[in-house]
Amino acid sequence: MSESVNEGGAAGWRDRTGNPAPLGLCAFGMTTILLNIHNAGFYALGGVILAMGVFYGGLAQIIVGLMEWKKGNSFGTLAFFSYGAFWLSFVLIVLFPAMGLGAAADNTSMAAYLLLWGLFTLALFPIALRSSKALGFVFGSLALLFIILALGKAYSSPDLITMAGYWGIIVGASAIYTGIAQIYNESFGRVVLPLCSKNEKWRSK
């Protein structure tokens, strides 16, 4: 919520809402880890991944995107809304053929889909890096993940898909770390888990 304040006779608004980014980062990270454990070959693509893709990776991130819009954060709005839509689109790519709503995606179309997401993520990487090195790593490693997956589909290479799976677990873990670190640092009022941002104040004990 926001509250009105008067300073020197001028009315203004103080933002009292919480930081939505940790929710979006954890939602993205946990769903990414689950999918990439599958890509690494440990289990089949099933209901657990699809349900997480709809509700946590998808809807939760879209809600976070709307919250970032409310805070005036254009980058957060674009990123969280886009990756939330990515997860929903991924689930529908899997489900549509089973529902008789289209042919299953072939490797060529999936390669194009993944490559576009990789290029989009790469374009956002320099902006993420300006926020913190931790967030920059999330976006840089995610761009590489999309590109490896695109190459794996383009060349029908199970080895590349498996390699992407292991790399994707690291990507997801880095997103979770970045989200949890923000919560810890805000809660304790000091740097508990470093994000390596320009505004980060290190305190020696």
Description:
With 205 residues, this protein is mostly helical. The chain has a single domain (22-188), classed as Alpha Horseshoe (Serine Threonine Protein Phosphatase 5, Tetratricopeptide repeat). Helices cover 71% and strands 6% of the residues. The radius of gyration is 19 Å and the shape is globular. The model is unreliable at 1-11 (pLDDT under 50).
Condensed summary:
With 205 residues, the protein is mostly helical. The protein is built from six helices and two strands, in the order ββαααααα. Helix 1 (21-39) packs antiparallel against helix 6 and helix 2 packs antiparallel against helix 3 (74-98).
Strand order in space, largest sheet: 1-2
- For this entry, what is the oligomeric state of its chains? single chain
Low-confidence stretches: 1-11
What kind of sheet is the major sheet? 2 strands, antiparallel
Percent range for helical residues?
Answer: over 70%
First and last CA, distance:
35 Å
CATH topology: Serine Threonine Protein Phosphatase 5, Tetratricopeptide repeat
CATH architectural designation? Alpha Horseshoe
Mean pLDDT: 90
Pattern of helices and strands:
EEHHHHHH
Q: What's the structural domain tally?
A: 1
The strand count comes to 2
What's the tally of helices?
Answer: 6
Strand content: 5-15%
Assigned CATH class: Mainly Alpha
Q: What Rg is obtained from the alpha carbons, in whole angstroms? A: 19 Å
Would you tell me the structural class of the helices and strands?
Answer: mainly alpha
